[in-house]
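Course assignment 3, question 2. Fill in each field.
Student: A.L.
Task: Predict the tertiary structure for the chain below.
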Amino acid sequence: EIKGVMKKLCDTVAELAASIAEDGQWSELLPFLFQCVSSDTTRWKESALMIFGQLAQYMGPQLHPHLPTLHAVFQQTLASTMPGDVRLAALRATSNFVQTLETPQDRECFQDLLPGMMQTLTQALDLHEEATAQEALEMFIEVAGTEPRFLRKQLVEVVSSMLQIADADGLEEATRHLAVEFLITLAEARERAPGMMRKLPHFIGKLFAVLLKMLLDVDDEPLWHSAETEDETAGESSNYEVGQECLDRLANSLGGNTILPVASELLPAYIADQDWKKRHAALICLAQIAEGCAKVD
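Answer field:
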């Protein structure tokens, strides 16, 4: 309850600040926020970071003169042993500011924050705080969709970590699905970062294998054999649905020249397997990638 009230209060402060900032009012706010964010009181620090995160969305360019100070604050907090809520607020603020950076130079300056951002995610998983991890993954998805170039220099490390999460059977399905969504979003970022994922063929094969394995999560229904009406979704799980959708998106975003070699390597074993689920997965996979692989040079 207190958390909910605090968040609403921070949102109100940020919206009010954004609405009157152009008139030069409320000049005391930023110095006060920098004072709070340097405080040893975690609630003050978290509140200030939450407000900075909102201000980035409302008036990011106006805060660019303060980027060096903000960078130092984010770096210190992301690398700290603060509670997960504080690090999550720092991650949200960092992610929101990254999406407002207009020049390669500014992105370069914030580049060294990425390990701390990833650490916030991995620490949450290590502590079995999957709700926190899921919020962190959602922020990474936003960055992948709006500013994928920020990830370029450490792409191998980030993609490798996300693949591990996507393939971790011990994690909640929602967590794994968000990691998959991050990877698919990167693959789809053709305009802002053309060819980024194509440069990682090894990882494309691993992602394809993860999605193919998700298609195995389907149950046999004895009633199918005597059913009088067809139920196209009977026995399907959320894993199955995600695998199906994402294979289609992956093929459409990367094209046949990239996907067919991967499919040709993985599908024959599935087709020849005695397990009906594997043969079924192979057929569904072919149907999903057919459109994206229609044109092959």
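Instructor remarks: The chain is about 65% helix and 0% strand. The mean pLDDT is 88.
Grade: pending
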